[in-house]
Amino acid sequence: SPVNALTNGHTSAASERLQIINDEKKFTPDLSAQIERWGLRDAGFGYNLVAVFGSQSTGKSTLLNRLFGTTFDVMDETQRQQTTKGIWMCRGKGMNIMVMDVEGTDGRERGEDQDFERKSALFSLASSEVLIINLWEHQVGLYQGANMGLLKTVFEVNLGLFGKNVNNGRTLLLFVIRDHIGQTPLANLQATLTADLNRIWESLSKPTELQDRKLSDYFDLSFTALPHKILSADKFESEVLNLRTRFANPEAPDFLFKPEYHKRIPADGVAFYMENIWEQVQSNKDLDLPTQQELLAQFRCDEISTVALAEFNEQAKSQRRPVEAGRVVDGLGEMMRNWRTDALTRYDRDASRYHQGVYKRKRADLLAALDSVLSPLFLGQLKNLHKTCLVAFKKEMLDGLHGEGYNFADVVSAARDRCLGRFETGAKEACVEGTDWSWEDEMVLLKEEVALVADQCRKDETKKMVNLIERNFKKQISEPVDLALNKAAPDMWDNILRTFKETLDKAEASYLVKARSFNCTEEENSHAIATLRKRAWQALRGKIDEQTADSVILGKLRAHFEERFRYDEMGVPRVWKPEDDIDGAFKKAKDETLELIPRYSKIEPVDSSLAYTLPADSIADVSDSFGGEEYDFGASLTIFTETKALELTQKFRREADAYYVEAKRSTVASIAQ
Ligand code: GDP
Ligand code: MG
Questions:
Q1: From atom 24 of ligand 1, which residue's Cα is the shortest distance away?
Q2: Most buried pick, 59, 339, 636, 653, via CB within 10 A?
Q3: pLDDT tens figures, 302-343
Q4: Which of 57, 71, 77 for mutating ligand 1's site (highest number of atoms within 8 Å of CB)?
Q5: CA–CA separation, 126 and 141 (whole Å)
Q6: Can you give the pLDDT at residue 622?
Q7: How far apart are the C-alpha atoms of 503 and 497, rounded to whole Å?
Q8: What's the pTM value of the predicted model, to 2 decimals?
Q9: By C-alpha distance, which of 484, 502, 483, 503 is closest to 493?
Q10: CA 275, CA 20: separation in Å to the nearest integer?
Q11: Is 5 helix (H, G, I), strand (E, B) or coil?
Q12: Ligand 1 atom closest to Cα of residue 75
């Protein structure tokens, strides 16, 4: 495990330490996870970062462990091992502080190359707020010593990093002078060190545009001394405690972590940022912090966005199936708005700490991704609403058109209003603020379909109504027509046509009354009326056909004949006597009856103007949309063709002859008596 086994008995994750850069100058892949284990991942800017620099075996690790309760390795006195190069990190115990123990920064003393020293200085300055410079009291004033070389490196590197932008990278250099005996007061040591630092600063070869910059433009300096750890153990402990307070307590008057030292890397981005910085440093590339910040922002904003989107997708998934199955999901809009707001809130909380340009760009991307997930749900909901509203409309129409006494137009407009109202309410609920979604187009489609359905209903209803009127018409003409045809008076057709005309006029009037509530068009009305006329005529013709079928008409003729031949003028049955003029009576009755055949043969009123009151054009021209074929009105006026009339005449003659023979026989019989 990259997380070292603990040596001091602590078992909680908070006290774990991590070698973030090993002696092969490799950066750990585990820092991000470790920061999380330390419980600092969500600290935002609410953490501090401090690093320690100094020669080997000057008690750096010891100091850090005392100050921050950390668990860095301390050199074992009895073994005096060579410490490896590298950077270790711990979390301060009970403090939101990341502490870096930079080992092996005294290559100069050991005659090694200063490569690592330079790199770790760059690395530390790019992230830390406070650099602790740890040195023995006796190292103070050794201008040529290892510490001075280290500081020269720090200054140079800092100029490269923050040279142009003074506001962006102020850092505190805290000098901790160890084994301070007390003979030389701290103030003197401080003066000596300050003078040395300024001399180093002056000696730096600065770019021309930074020529006038002073050390204090970039660094705050602070000095403290600690007594000998063994010789004045008590005083050492109490001084360490004092110093600890200055790190740990923001209320302390000389609190060390001033806000302006913060490098403004959100805690959840520290790992990525440090790794990138180290990579740049390692490959000796120019370290451009604004670019690094932007890279960090891109990486982190993407990550944060991905997490927010994943949670969001999980939520959205729950309603995808019902919507796809055609259900109108109750409160879908509310849910969608909540998911969307939640995702954005999550994103904003973490991502807004990063580079603003990047944060905003990625936010727009996220928003587009969220909306592209929601949009099909919205459209599906609209589609389903459309369908269910239309179904409800149809049902309501059918229910409303049940039975008698409804007003079609009222039923339609009530159902229509409810349908569109229901759609609009549902559609508005499904909308999400901040999108350009609209439901109006779908509403237009729905309106069109509602109109189509209403239209079809109207046509069906009209059809039903015409059928009903037709049935009534048939009932009304039945008896008068029967009567007239039986009587077969010379003005038989006048009576029949008059009845037809009157009954049809009534039927038309009753259609028009009802049609008003159907909002029928002029065209529809005239078509329905024409249909009605044609049906009426056909009904009349049907009635006539029924009454003039062979057996029926022969019956009528027979009855007519009998009435005249077998009964006298008083309606009394005749008993023929030999002196009676059977032949004359027979001829008269037969001729009068035969006259009826041409009367029945053609619909021909005596008053010929009556024929012109017939709606001949309607009857002939209308192609009946309710069913029916071309109709020859002229032909329909003929009941019997000539051939047919002849045939009937023949048949009737034969029957009449039989009556004659019977009459003759009856007289013979009466003589015989
Ligand atoms: P580092 O290499 O700078 O991290 O130093 P260490 O913390 O490992 O300490 C090196 C040695 O110095 C150890 O044996 C410590 O016990 C000892 N030491 C630590 N602090 C002090 C101190 O304040 N004064 C003296 N004289 N020795 C110390
Ligand atoms: Mg150490």
A1: 229
A2: 339
A3: 999 999 999 999 999 999 999 999 999 999 999 999 999 999
A4: 57
A5: 28
A6: 63
A7: 10
A8: 0.74
A9: 484
A10: 9
A11: coil
A12: 8
